[in-house]
Design a protein that fits this description.
Blueprint lengths: L1 H32 L3 E5 L1 E17 L3 E4 L4 E6 L6 E2 L4 E5 L2 H44 L6 H41 L1 E3 L4 E6 L6 E2 L7 E6 L5 E9 H13 L2 E6 L2 E13 L4 E3 L2 E11 L10 E18 H5 L12 H11 L1 H13 L2 H10 L2 E8 L2 E12 L3 E7 L6 E6 L8
Antiparallel strand pairs: 1-20, 2-11, 2-16, 3-10, 4-6, 4-9, 5-8, 6-7, 8-10, 11-15, 12-13, 12-16, 13-15, 14-15, 16-19, 17-18, 18-19
Helix pairs in contact: 2-3
Length: about 425
């Protein structure tokens, strides 16, 4: 009897000890296996939507200065990076042949002028002879025969024609002289604009042959200190946004590798229509105008461009990570499980391909409706040990946040963005 009571007491004591340790162990295991969520708060502020691209810095205008005449280069007066003025001589072609041509044609012109004087004198003599013959015939018709009168008359007419020919010969000689003088003037290579010499393609002594094609000797870029152009290629999917940015005069910001810490700003100057197709991707040239007072932007630089296409001053901002996060089914409320199941159906590889094919077969109205529905998303908030879905409609987006257009959220609300990895406690 005593033994039975003793064993009963021991059993009760062990049971009590076991029950006393079960609850702490259960709580320890629950805390150990509890999911720790990564969270981020809803914020309020400005959102700037951008379209990124790359471009090449080029002068607003690049004037290629060539040579109209041939010959060896005698003198060069302009060097690389030199600022020149309109009308300034940049180089000179050897002028010996052209000076000789001018002298020859000038002498020919003087000869033609003298010939005009000679013909005028002969014409005046013929006129005087004709007048005297007419006077004598008037006194007595028998003094001069009619045949003699015809000789005087036609001699005068012949000299009048010779005078006209001689005057025309002067015009021809003058034109020839003008051509030779123009060729002589062309030996001076003159800048047609104010600008900076960005390229020089000749050296002293080099022979320039302009017989078949005008050679380029210099490249001069005007107004480089005033503004430069950045030539960018923008995908057709974004070109509508770029045109809106041009109309709204949104700023375009860009950087260049030469000045990594400096941010440059410009404006969309032009969206050109001469599209280019590369591997089935259509792009359009977009020209950005940027001031360049310090001449930091040089031709050929590569610019990393961000086109501002929209802006919200006071928007409720959802973290992009919260929009990308979809939890496991076991972590959400039972009433929100259909949301996850629908999401998985839409994101399955086979179903996604089929959905893409189906979208191509849809009408334009259906495609537009589906694309608008894509802005309807879900974010997740913690409710007890489970997660609750909050439907939202998104708007503008940058690289960190997205504008809340519709949804039961306010600044300060905590959204789940992921699961924290378990912390390993060192032994």
């Amino acid at each position: 009897m005593k033994t039975t009571i003793r064993w009963l007491i021991v059993t009760l004591v062990l049971s009590g000890l076991g029950y006393g340790t079960y609850i702490p162990v259960q709580q320890y295991l629950a805390n150990r296996n509890r999911v720790i969520w990564r969270t981020e708060a809803v914020d309020r502020g400005s959102i700037t939507a951008v379209v990124n691209s790359t471009g090449t810095v080029k002068p607003k205008l690049q004037v290629a200065i060539g040579c109209f005449v041939s010959g060896p280069v005698k003198d060069i007066y302009a060097e690389f990076n030199q600022e020149v003025k309109e009308g300034e001589i940049l180089a000179r072609i050897e002028q010996k042949l052209y000076l000789a041509n001018v002298a020859r044609d000038k002498a020919s012109l003087d000869n033609r002028v003298a010939d005009v004087g000679r013909v005028k004198a002969q014409l005046q003599q013929a006129i005087n002879d004709e007048k005297r013959a007419i006077a004598l015939r008037t006194e007595d018709a028998t003094f001069i025969a009619q045949a003699e009168m015809d000789k005087y008359k036609f001699a005068r007419l012949s000299l009048e024609a010779q005078l006209k020919s001689a005057v025309t010969a002067i015009d021809t000689a003058q034109a020839t002289l003008d051509i030779s003088q123009a060729n002589l003037d062309y030996t001076n290579i003159i800048s047609p604009v104010d600008g900076i010499v960005i390229d020089r393609k000749i050296n002293p002594g080099q022979t320039v042959a302009a017989s078949f094609q005008t050679p380029d000797l210099f490249s001069v870029a005007p107004d480089m200190r005033k503004e430069m152009y950045i030539h960018a290629s923008v995908d057709e999917a974004d070109i509508g946004l770029i045109k809106i940015a041009q109309q709204e005069k949104f700023p375009v910001r860009f950087t260049v590798d030469a000045y990594r810490d400096e941010l440059f700003e410009g404006r969309v100057f032009e969206v050109r229509l001469n599209y280019m197709t590369t591997q089935n991707v259509v792009t359009y040239p977009v020209i950005v105008s940027a001031p360049n007072p310090d001449l930091k932007l040089l031709p050929g630089m590569t610019a990393s461009i961000s086109f501002q296409v929209a802006f919200r001053e006071d928007a409720i901002k959802i973290p992009n990570a919260a929009l990308r996060f979809y939890p496991d089914v076991k972590h959400v409320r039972s009433e929100d499980i259909p949301i996850l199941e629908g999401h998985r159906e839409k994101t399955g590889d086979r179903d996604a391909d089929e959905a893409q094919l189906n979208e191509k077969a849809m009408s334009a109205e259906s495609r537009s409706k589906i694309r608008k529905e894509r802005d309807r998303r879900h974010v997740w908030v913690q409710e007890g040990d489970k997660l609750r879905a909050v439907p939202v409609v998104s708007g503008l987006s940058d690289n960190q946040h997205t504008e809340l257009v519709e949804g039961d959220l306010k600044p300060g609300d905590i959204l789940v963005t992921g699961i924290k990895p378990p912390q390993v406690v060192p032994r």
